[in-house]
Amino acid sequence: EVQLVASGGGLAPPGGSLRLSCAASGFTFSNYDFHWVRQSPEKGLEWVSAIGTVGETFYPDFVTGRFTISRQNARNSLYLQMNSLRADDTAIYYCVRRSSKEGTHYFDYWGQGTLVTVSS
Amino acid sequence: DIQLTQSPSSLSASVGDRVTLTCQASQDITYYLNWYQQKPGKAPKVLIYDASNLETGVPSRFSGSGSGTLFTFTITSLQPEDIATYFCQQYDNFPFTFGPGTKVELK
Question: Any chain A CB within 8 A of the CB of B64?
């Protein structure tokens, strides 16, 4: 059974840092691309970052320079280092697997989400 | 960035009704559009990928169509377990973007 279990969320002050982790199981982790997607009542679903099988990374402008996605295949783990946090980074953060179907790009498995709250 | 607008923002329908939702893109995204269902307190779940392909294991009452800038998502016969919010998502260009969602409720 495919499982993605996110952890590391919590309360951080504005300007602070958090590191999210996502533990994967039930499939060959190294064969897949992964993303982080967040959701808040104010902004809805937002794509936050992506990492490919060979470590290439992609970010939207609003996190570039602040967030870093990484992976450790030996540990079947995905990470999101979040620095210079702002109040509008408050959201549930989901780790998400990209489907392996050739020629397409959709999210076939989502973790349960971890809540990040940025507040003083 | 590509903007996605969904309509309606919410709707009420009865069990057995045909329900149609719309997603419009701010520019041509060919067929690079996916549909997700989200129930309260749960993560989204993919139903349709590439505008019209049914994900494995998803009931055939769900379908999608469209290309370019206008897409539709249909539930042919609404069931009580279909009560959820439905989101479209484009992957034509980074940054990937999502629509604001359509909340489907029972009348």
Answer: no
